[in-house]
Amino acid sequence: HVKPYRFFKHTGDINAPPQATKTNENTEHQFQFINPEERGDSQDEDKAPDEDKAPDAQDKQAPDAQGKQPPGAQPKPPPEGSFPDVAPDHEAVEDTDDYLLFLETILTNVHKAFFTLYDKEPSDSKKLDLKTIIPYLKKKVLPGVRLVFSGVFPMNVRANTTQIYKLAEAFGAVVQPDVVTKEQDETKFTTHLVAARWGTTKVNTASRLPYVQIVTPQWLWCCIERWEK
């Protein structure tokens, strides 16, 4: 016989022929080849005890008096209309994602806006395009909002190149570099400060102004996601 080379511990020879039987001697795996003629004789001798044990195997498969299934038996399916018991540690997870409800409102508004413009100018219906209707509806989400970002962007990144900056302008907000008070400009004073953390100079300045609302970036993202203020 040929001693197989073991690449990994406690693994056999995957290339061993089907007529090889695995033996374990002193934790070393070896394979002993058996003559097919001798194997046939041994199989015939082994069949007789199996036939005698057949009734016993059937008895083992039958359920006991308490209705318990023997090991290896297939479980019976529950009757129709009944539900299996749920373990107490498997609690149902509550789904709090309600974006589809807001998406329905968004699509409904887009639909109404399209046909409102169509009814006004039916002759120019071919010029109607969602590429112009959707930006128009976005501009109506944050009208009159003049906001300032604080602690949202890294120092080495230009604010006007970030996604949240571009989306804020696309949804009708005016982004200002610094907080503008009413004393400085009564028509363009800051209304919102989007701050990622407390303690910045802009936050300290806005906290003393009652007309400036200090919000988080999540608030702005929520407005953008739901198309509403």
UniProtKB/TrEMBL annotation:
<feature type="region of interest" description="Disordered">
    <location>
        <begin position="1"/>
        <end position="90"/>
    </location>
</feature>
<keyword id="KW-0378">Hydrolase</keyword>
<dbReference type="InterPro" id="IPR036420">
    <property type="entry name" value="BRCT_dom_sf"/>
</dbReference>
<dbReference type="InterPro" id="IPR001357">
    <property type="entry name" value="BRCT_dom"/>
</dbReference>
<protein>
    <recommendedName>
        <fullName>RNA polymerase II subunit A C-terminal domain phosphatase</fullName>
        <ecNumber>3.1.3.16</ecNumber>
    </recommendedName>
</protein>
<feature type="compositionally biased region" description="Basic and acidic residues">
    <location>
        <begin position="36"/>
        <end position="62"/>
    </location>
</feature>
<feature type="compositionally biased region" description="Polar residues">
    <location>
        <begin position="18"/>
        <end position="33"/>
    </location>
</feature>
<keyword id="KW-0539">Nucleus</keyword>
<dbReference type="GO" id="GO:0008420">
    <property type="term" value="F:RNA polymerase II CTD heptapeptide repeat phosphatase activity"/>
</dbReference>
<feature type="domain" description="BRCT">
    <location>
        <begin position="137"/>
        <end position="229"/>
    </location>
</feature>
<dbReference type="Pfam" id="PF00533">
    <property type="entry name" value="BRCT"/>
</dbReference>
<feature type="compositionally biased region" description="Pro residues">
    <location>
        <begin position="72"/>
        <end position="81"/>
    </location>
</feature>
<keyword id="KW-0904">Protein phosphatase</keyword>
<dbReference type="InterPro" id="IPR039189">
    <property type="entry name" value="Fcp1"/>
</dbReference>
<dbReference type="GO" id="GO:0005634">
    <property type="term" value="C:nucleus"/>
</dbReference>
